[in-house]
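Researcher: Let's run the pair from yesterday's discussion. Sequence first, then tokens, for each.
Model: Starting with the first of the pair.
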Amino acid sequence: MKISLLPTLLFTLLISSVSISQNAVQDSVMLKKLYTTALTDGKAYDWLDYLSNEIGGRLSGSYEAELAVKYTEAELKELGLDKVWLQPVMVPKWTRGFKEYAYIESPTGDKTITNICALGGSVPTPNLGIKAEVVEVKGLEELAALGREKLEGKIIFYNRPMQPELIQTFEAYGGCVDQRYSGAAEAAKFGAVGVIVRSLSLRMDDFPHTGAMSYGDTPVNQRIPAAAISTNGAEYLSSLLKLQPNLLFYFKQNCKTFDDVQSYNVIGEITGSTKPNEYMVVGGHLDSWDLADGAHDDGAGCVQSMEVLRLFKKVGYKPNHTIRVVLFMNEENGLRGGKKYAEEAKRKNETHRFALESDAGGFTPRGFTFDTDAANFKKVQSWEGLFKPYLIHYFEKGYGGADIGPLKGNINVLAGLRPDSQRYFDYHHAANDTFDAVNKRELELGAATMASLVYLFDKYGVE
């Protein structure tokens, strides 16, 4: 007797369709709860207010960074997490000293004061400062082409701007950050006495933007001071050089590098109900530069990450995996916190499945980038419809984040929250990166978006 398999197949497909539909409804309801709770009963903005206005800039190794560790540890404990602890990490200690001073001097002796700030990690100028002729270049290749004869004894002015036509502003930043990071080391090879670097910002203003720089293997006695000049200052200096190529530039800075000091990553977790020994991480970096509050970079990412765990507890969600929040120390000038966390995870033989970082400002969330394989990315794409009501539409393969990057090779998925980045570099590493520049609602939307992605990965797992 021949038995038809068609009815059985149809029944199986029907049951599968009903199951998928029920999951979609459940997920939609959960995302709605997360967004509603974040927008009506959020905590992230209050946390950021305290970090920014009561503590301020949190440069690695500083007293303020120590205060931030103690504050966030206490707040995580207040949430009633299953475990909160500090992970020791040695970090560099560099101080800016007295405010920098600079002026442009014409051949007739007229002086125009201009706004600069020392780059992080720079050596100081001599006590009386440095005054020398200026050579403007657009990048490291042009510098090398000029050679020692034209550069020795000069101050090198790197003036390659971020490309305004690039919609992805992080791409524009990446296109010229080498002159800030390696500019001093390269200029020293040709006998230059100092470098001035155009601030990495798309906005024309008077705020110089600091940031990390490196001397590489340059001997200590051959290192030259490096500073950033505001975008308005850079345009003015460049225009004057066209008229007066032999003008002089003077600058003085008092920065100092000390021995490494101990600091901490701040970690809290909710223990997984079915997979307690498999970890999912959400985090940002607790340190910032010292010129301002570091509200966007990266106070916003820290409080959003803390909020993810608070939201789960608030809506009563019990995760399958252990969910960790990690507030990394020293992303800005060493990445010591991210490296230490990955080192300890490997030493303890911990299984990490997923990590999400927020380090692109507290602006309106647009979506995520994912460093993962095709199977996991396909799973992410199946969730796009769940995010559509919240105007989250950007799901692309790409970069996860600096602090979670050291986990690569021992983790399935690295992801980065991607807010609208058009204004980010207006504030990045500058004195205007303050609490008042952060919009409460945008910050809360970012936290809810992060919580939603963590929820979905926790529920459905990784491939």
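Model: Moving on to the second of the pair.
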Amino acid sequence: MADAARSTDRLEALDITRKLAAICGTPFARFAGPADEVAGRTARWVAVPGGPHAAAEVLRLAAAHDLTVVPRGAGTKIDWGAAPAQVDIMLDTGRLAGVWHEPRGAAVAEIGAGTPLRAVQATLARTNRRLPVDAPSPGATLGGVLAADESGPLRHRHGSPCAQLVGVRYLDADGELVSVGESGTEALGRATPGSGGGRASGRGPAGGAGGDPGRGGGDAILGRGEVPGLDVARLLCGSQGGLGVLVSATMRVHAVPAGRLWVSRPVWTPLEVHDLVRAVLAAGVDPAAVELDLPVPVPLPRRRIPPTHPSVVNRPDHPAVTGRPAAGSLVVLLEGGPADVTERAERLTAVLGAEAIVSHHAPEWWGRYPFAPGDTALRIEVPINDLHAAVYALRDATGGPVPVRGSAGAGTVHAALSGALPPERVASILTAVRSVLIARRGRCVVVAAPAAVRRAVDLWGELPTLPRLRSAKAHLDPHHRLAPGRLPGGL
């Protein structure tokens, strides 16, 4: 009987493979290999549909055979979050790519979900425009950025990528193509050049609308002038494919700023960062980004190096010059007209003091995460006035400094714990940090972690919006066929 069952399974698997090949084309449908994993869970098939209608057919096939589907873009964040309960079909969005409806001067563009973000920016740059989106993951697709609600330094002024949405097209669990908000052609007549997604408030993300599942997934409230249906579109942001498969997104675009300057200052303590960020925000210089880098401090050298030594010339943060170990940097990005940016940089350096340096280039660490593959990666969200308390709490819980980097001006930073820490130690650190953050309207989320840690700890912590997320899952994917288990609460 067992042999007969295995034979039946093999015949059914071959039949599904043939059907996927008929939908996508023979080169674009196959049995999955060892590399086709989602947070450690291996898929059974990989399908690369050539367009929205083919993708819809893949979902209909999955529904007919009661198979699960997990979308994949470039795979840069495929190991983030919880492992799905099951991955039958990995739906690769690589052929759902392109930048459409973006004539010269248009304030919006419709972009295929599988389009690499760098390709989007290169296309828009031909007409001196850009998406105000700078996700740190190299090679990330726009769909992957939206599905993870991944933001970079420009979140300070423009908010998350979700805030730039005008409309989306997505496939529901039954393979129906749904359009919400506006398509590129519809939005061209409504959007105004330069319209933005709104600057981040001083409260930081913990007090604003979030997009990833850890932040409640689409907890945005539509403001005046918003396009009806965007609440649904933004619900998909951060859902990691658990509520729908993104096909395309219509995004606001902006003119490329003519001038950019980075003003940096060395920092030594989280409390100093707190004071400096408050000073920057009160200076009226309209920063595009306020970023913090706190690496593990380097011990003082055994002998003092003369300040004139070539290795430390123009390095006011070096311990040989300051007499204390440099812990990191606070860097402010200013954008706008060249003369205006220069004038604002002069005002900002007066605020930050003699140690401030102005540069035409970003620091090497700009727009990069502090964690590496194999680390336990944390995201801390807290109102900016309490960011220093969060960093101190993390240091106290771990027994020493940990690398911290991110948007100090928006209250969202990432931290890295060694992947060698045992799961129970990581769990105790999370408990300690979350107990400090909960009274400050902050959160600590595990972004990525080794499999043993991921299985043992609570990745998201307390999530007040879980009931709403559960209702959304029940409405959009009642049979739990889309990335089951990827969302909080095992949804």
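Researcher: Give me one sentence on the second I can quote.
Model: The first strand starts at residue 29 and ends at 31.
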